[in-house]
Amino acid sequence: MSQALLNSITVFVLAVFLGIELISRVPALLHTPLMSGTNAIHGIVLVGAMLIAGSADSTLEQTLAFVAVVFATINVVGGFLVTDRMLEMFKRKPDRGEGPE
Amino acid sequence: MTFALSQTTINFAYLVASVGLIIGIKRLSSPATARSGNVIAAIGMAIAIVFTLLSPQIDSYWLIAAGVAVGTVIGVASARMVKMTAMPQMVALFNGVGGGAAALIAAAEFHRLTPALGHVLPEHMGAMLFSALIGSISFSGSLVAFGKLQELLPGRPIVFAGQQIVNGLLFAALVGVGIFAGATENGVWAVVLLLGALLFGVLLVLPIGGADMPVVISLLNAFTGLAAASTGFILENTALIIGGTLVGASGTLLTILMGRAMNRSLANVLFGAFGAPAPTGDAAVSTNGEVKSYREVSAEDCAVMLAYASRVVIVPGYGLAVAQAQHNVRELADLLERRGVDVKYAIHPVAGRMPGHMNVLLAEANVPYPQLYDMEDINPEFPRTDVALIIGANDVTNPAAREDPESPLYGMPILNVDASANVVVLKRSMSPGFAGIDNDLFYRANTAMLFGDAKASVENLVAAVKAA
Questions:
Q1: From the candidates B59, B212, B301, B395, which is the catalytic residue?
Q2: What is the structure's pLDDT at B355?
Q3: Which pLDDT band, with edges at 50, 70 and 90, does B277 fall under?
Q4: Out of B35, B83, B221, B435, which could bridge B211 as a Cys pair, Cβ 3.0 to 4.6 Å?
Q5: 3-class secondary structure per residue, B117-184
Q6: Do B242 and A42 touch (CB under 8 A)?
Q7: How much is the pLDDT for B229?
Q8: B187-225 CB burial, b ≥16 within 10 A, e <16
Q9: What ipTM describes this predicted complex?
Q10: Is there a contact between B70 and A70 if contact means CB atoms under 8 Å apart?
Q11: Which residues contact residue B164 at a Cβ distance below 8 angstroms, ignoring those fewer than 6 apart?
C-alpha cells in the first residue's frame, strides 16, 4: 500500500467518525434542513468534475465531464439555496406579539 | 498556466474549506445557528471550488465555465421557484444529480486511464467502479423518489412476484460485472455496470411506499456522499474525501435514526414492500365483511367543539402542506388560545414527506417552538385532550399500527389520537393515505370527518369560531 493511499484512508476513517459525531445531537425539527444541507455539501463532487473537465482530451471525456460539471453545479447551488430558504423560516420568536419587538 | 498555484497551497486551501464544511454541519444542528451554518458551509465550498480552478491540473477553462453557467441557471431557478410543499422532491433531485456527477466522473476517468492496460492502480480502479455503481444507483433511485413524490409515478409500492430475488440477483451480477470490468479494463463492461446500476436504483425504490420515502431519500443522500468520497480516491483529492465522507457518515446515521423512529430496520424498509395493499380487500369493508360507517361533522359544529374545549391538539400532515394551510392553522390556534384553550401541535417524526417537514411548514407560519411536541411528549397527553384535530395526516394516526398484527403498519410508533375524547379528521375524501392503507380511526365512535380542502376547512373553522 502506498503512503498516498494510506493518507487517504486515514482521512476517510477520521471523517467517518467525525460525520457521525457531528449529527448525533440534532433535534428532529432540523432533520429536513440538515438533510438538505448535507445534500448541498456532497456537491463537493464539483471539485472532481472541474478537475476532469479541465484536462479532458477526447470528445467523449469532454461530454461526460461537461454533464458532470452541470450536475454537480446544480447540486451545490440548488442545495445551498434551498437549505437557506428552509432555514429562513426558523427565525427566533421570543414572544408571540405581532409588533416589531 | 502562469497563475497556477502549487499543490501544497491548494491542499492547504482544502483544509480551510473542510473546516468550513465541518463547522457548517455543526451549526446546522441548532435552530439558532443553523442559517449561519449553511452560509459557512457554502463559504467552505466556495473556497474549495476557487482553489481547484487555480490547480495546475487544469489546462482549459471553457468547458468548466460553460458547465458551471448552465448548472447555476438551473440550480438557482429551481431552488427559487420550488414551493415549500415540493421541497422534499427537490432535495431528492439535487441529490440525484450529485450521484450522477460522481458516476460520470468515474466513467470519464475509466475512459482516460484504461487504454494503457495494466497501468491503472488497483485502488483507483476499485474507487472508479464503486463511484460508478453507487453514483448511478443514487441517480436513478432519486429520480424515482422524485417521480413518486411529484406524483408522476404512483406513490404506492410497485411490486411484482420474486422482486427481492430479482433485485438480489441483479446486485450480485453487478458486483460480478464490476470485478470483470476491473480485471479486463474493458469499457464495454463499465457501460454494462453503469446501465445495470441505473436499473438497480429504479428497482430498489419502486417497491417502497409513501411512508418510507423520507428514509429512502436520506439513504440515497448518504450513497451520493460515499460516491463523492470515492471520486476523491480516484483523483487523490482530500476535499472530495472529507466532504463526501462527512455526508456519507452523517447521512447513514440520520437514516438509521429515522428508521428507528418508525420502529423498522433499514432492511425492513428496503425489502418489506411497505404499504402493499392488505390482502383483506375492499377499503370500506372490515375483515368480517361488515360495511364500516363513519360520521360527518359540519365546520360549525366542529368550531363549537373547539371553542369550548380546554385542551386541543393539532396533528398536521402532508395534506396541510399540499393545501398550504399553515397560516390559517396558526390563525385558528391563536383564536382558540385567546379564548383560553390550551393548543398544542403533535409532530410525528415522519409526518409529511420528510422528517421535520411539519416543523418547517409551521415555522413558516411563525408557530412558536414551545407549542410543537414530539411524539413521545404528546402521546401521554391524548387521554386528557378534548379534541384532536387531524389536518391532512393519516398513516401516522392509524391505530392498526398498535392493534392489528396483519397491518403493514404494525409496530410503527403512532400518535395515539384515538385516546382523545373527540377526534376530528380534516380530509378531502375517504381515500386511504399515501401508504395505501385504510385507516380504522375514521370509523371509530369518537371520530368525526370534516371533508374538504384543508385550507378551506380551516378557514371555515376560523370564521365559525369567531362567531361562536
A1: B395
A2: 67
A3: very low
A4: B435
A5: CCCCCHHHHHHHHHHHHHHHHHHHHHHHHHHHHCCCCCCCCCCCCCHHHHHHHHHHHHHHHHHHHHHH
A6: no
A7: 97
A8: eebbebbbebbbbbbebbbbbbbbbbbbbbbbbbbbbbb
A9: 0.90
A10: yes
A11: B271
Statement: residue B307 has pLDDT above 50: yes
pLDDT at B264 exceeding the cut of 70: no
Interface size, chain A vs chain B, as Cβ–Cβ contacts under 8 Å: 373
Tell me what pLDDT residue B3 has.
67
Q: H or E element: which one contains A12?
A: helix A3-23
- Report the amino acid identity of residue B105: I
Give A72's contacts in chain B (Cβ within 8 Å).
71, 97-98, 101
State the best of A8, A63, A74, A95 to mutate against chain B, taking most chain B CBs within 10 Å.
A74
> Is A4 close to B91, i.e. CB distance below 8 A?
no
Integer Cα distance of B224 and B220 in angstroms: 6
Q: Decide if A74 touches B, using CB distance below 8 A.
A: yes
Cβ pair B259, B269 in contact under 8 A: yes
Q: Is B440 a catalytic residue?
A: no
Question: What are A36-88's pLDDT values in tens digits?
Answer: 999 999 999 999 999 999 999 899 999 999 999 999 999 999 999 999 988 87
- Read off the pLDDT of residues B205-254 as tens digits, 9 standing for 90 and up: 988 876 678 788 989 999 999 999 999 999 999 999 999 999 999 999 88
Residues in chain A with CB shorter than 8 Å from the CB of B239 are: 44, 47
Which residues sit opposite B423 in a β-bridge?
Answer: B388, B447
**What is residue A98's DSSP assignment?**
S
Which residues in chain B have their CB less than 8 angstroms from residue A100's CB? none
For residues B387 and B309, the answer to whether their CB atoms sit within 8 Å is yes
- Collect all residues of chain A within an 8 Å Cβ-Cβ radius of residue B67: 49, 53, 65-70, 73
Instruction: Give the separation between CA B213 and CA B182, rounded to whole angstroms.
Output: 34
Query: Do B42 and A52 make contact, defined as CB atoms within 8 angstroms?
Result: no
Please tell me whether the overall predicted TM-score, pTM, comes out greater than 0.90 for this model. Answer: no
Is residue A58 within 8 angstroms of chain B, CB to CB?
A: yes
Q: Given an 8 Å threshold on Cβ–Cβ distance, is A31 in contact with B70?
A: no
Do you know the residue count of chain A? 101
